[in-house]
Amino acid sequence: MTTTVTPRSHSTETGSVVARTARTGHLIAAGAAMFALPWLVWGSAIAQAHGLIGWRLPQGLALWVLTPSIVLVTALIGGRPALLDLGRRLVAWRVPPVTYLAALATPVVVATAAVALAAALGHRPHLGAMMSLPSALAYLGYGVGLYLLTEEAGWRGLLLPRLQARMRPVWANLLLGVVWSVWHYPLLHVPGESDNGLPFAGFLLLTTGTAVLIGALVNAAGGSVLVAALFHAAFNATYSYTGVVGPDHTPLWTAATVSAVLAVALSATTRGTLLHR
Coil, strand or helix: which one is 228? Predict the structure, then answer.
């Protein structure tokens, strides 16, 4: 006899796996796995720039070292069931089409509003200065796979479901946004990186507001990490093309303000659930 697993039983199984692996020790282990190797890679570049060492690790490794770290810590805290749950989240593509549209459109809307506000304050737009339009489109295609298998597998695939099992979704996403911002902190000091020199306070506001927006989309898509990866790639490509993350910091602050306003409005509209079921 063949047994068919219904969506309800699948949802119950997924919730059980997440709940069993959402203890404080599990969350600390997952967080440590996200920080350790990228900070080592970025730290080597910072140390070299200050003359402390004469070498640096290849900076392109900073994200890709996350993949084995995420797989290892997931296996350690939850074994095969946790790995299967993470895998299902990574390949979940049958989601409401509107979530894909929103993942692409939201960064464009925020960036457009940010550039318009900066222009109203007397700052000239810097379209294409940091990244040309063809390069941004190419980055969008490459970035989806990059973030799916690295950052978003950890932030929205591993950590977010467990944080939301411990606290209200709005607080879980705000906390994750702060952690995500702190994770980037060394990158703001790596010479030659596009984020080098950005004010941390503005970056914190932008990233935390963005985390709430991504979290709501992931919840609307039933936990799909693919939607988060699409948003992340669109976010970086759009903000680089429009100069939000450029040397003129006014667009960064206006984008941060727009993102924060959208995050507050979304949180209020959904009464703090951020579309989490």
Answer: helix
